[in-house]
Structures are given as structure tokens and as C-alpha cells.
Design goal:
This protein has an eight-stranded parallel β-barrel, surrounded by six helices. The chain has one domain: Aldolase class I (TIM Barrel, Alpha-Beta Barrel). α2 runs parallel beside α3 and α3 packs across α4. The chain has seven helices and eight strands; from the N terminus they run αβαβαβαβαβαβαββ. The longest helix is centred in the first third of the chain and has 18 residues. It is an alpha/beta fold and 206 residues long. The chain is globular, with a radius of gyration of 15 Å.
Length: 206
């Protein structure tokens, strides 16, 4: 992505993070999560090396046979930024990740994982209010709520838009990240929504 676009995303995400600080978010939550996707992230290692300060990476490997080797390279190149492994707590532990990101169907494991590893961050995906509130009740440190803007993801549903997103965020009871079509040209529409930051796939494609 062009440096100007990355700068705008990072600047606005930092503003969201700062405004949410009054809600006492967990100390390690970054302003940006860059999510990888096997079909849309050509080089997760290069992605990790090029992320701006204040970001973190959620490495989603979906059972790739070389997943552990990739995770170790990403960890080495992430320059101390938070690294979560998607849906695989055992792999996260083996590579020294900072926690896990749970898909919506696995959000009920959040509290057990945090009890087993108190230093971990555990985030959870959600696509509606009910699933987001369940993730918060299960003890997730943050909820990544989608889809906010139109997205090219094949699994993306109808976008909720920033007004609906803001209404849901106020009712979830946990820090919330905006995911789905978040780009430099629309990220400022999230100001005032109560989000703690943003999450994106295509905005950081390598």
C-alpha cells in the first residue's frame, strides 16, 4: 500500500485508540490489526516487516502445512509488534505469539485460553450484536466486528455502515475494532463510533 494511505490509516487509528482509552482497554491492544489471508496476503513476512508502529498482526494460516515455519518468520520480522495466531492456540504457544484470534464459532474458548495463559491477548470475530456480546461475555479482550464498509472478501455480507457499527459498539461491553473495507479514503468515517481501532486485510496487502 502507498505510504500516504498507510499514514492516514495509522493516524486515524491512533486517534480512535486514544479516544477509547477512557474505557480502560487492555494495555497491549494496538490501534491496528493487520489480518492475513492465504488468498489475499502474498507475503505475510513482508507484511509484518512493513507495518507501522501501533499495529499488530493476526496471522491466519487455515492449517497450511508450512504454517509453523511461516509463523516463526513473521514473529522474527514483526519487530516486537503484537502477534496473534488465528484459531490455533497450540501453534501460538509453540512460536511464542502474544495470543490468539478466535473465529466467531470458537469465541466461547476465550476465558479458558486466558486462564491457561494469563499474559495472552485473545480477540474474537463477530458479525452481529449477539455474537459480539457473547464474545465479550466469554472474556475476549476485544471484538473484531464486521462488515463495516463494502468488502471484496468472498465471505463478506452486507455492510452495516458506520452509523450501525457505532450503535452496536456502544452495546457490546468490550473494546471493538472495525473490520471490512476499511481503507484510507473512508477510515475517518469511523471517528466518533467508539471503536478502539481498525482491522484490515486488503489495506495492507503485500
Amino acid at each position: 500500500m502507498r505510504r500516504s494511505g498507510t499514514s492516514e490509516l495509522a493516524k486515524t487509528a491512533a486517534t480512535l485508540r486514544r479516544r477509547a482509552a477512557g474505557r480502560n482497554p487492555p494495555r497491549a491492544l494496538p490501534a491496528i490489526w493487520a489480518l492475513t489471508d492465504p488468498a489475499r496476503t502474498a507475503d505475510p513476512v513482508a507484511l509484518a516487516a512493513g507495518l507501522p508502529g501501533g499495529a499488530g498482526i493476526i496471522l491466519r494460516l487455515f492449517g497450511a502445512p508450512d504454517g509453523e515455519a511461516t509463523a516463526r518468520r513473521v514473529k522474527a520480522k514483526s519487530a516486537g509488534l503484537p502477534l496473534l495466531v488465528g484459531a490455533d492456540a497450540r501453534l501460538a504457544a509453540r512460536v511464542g505469539a502474544d495470543g490468539v484470534h478466535l473465529p466467531q464459532r470458537l469465541a466461547h474458548h476465550a476465558r479458558r485460553l486466558k486462564q491457561a495463559r494469563p499474559g495472552w491477548l485473545v480477540t474474537a470475530a463477530a458479525h452481529d450484536l449477539a455474537s459480539a456480546r457473547r464474545a465479550a461475555a466469554f472474556g475476549a479482550d476485544a471484538v473484531i466486528l464486521s462488515v463495516v464498509f463494502p468488502s471484496r472478501s468472498p465471505s463478506a455480507g452486507r455492510p452495516m455502515g458506520p452509523l450501525r457499527f457505532a450503535a452496536l459498539t456502544r452495546r457490546i461491553g468490550a473494546p471493538v475494532y472495525a473490520l471490512g473495507g476499511v481503507k484510507a479514503h473512508n477510515v475517518r468515517r469511523l471517528l466518533g463510533t467508539g471503536a478502539i481501532g481498525i482491522a484490515a486485510v486488503d489495506a495492507f496487502r503485500t
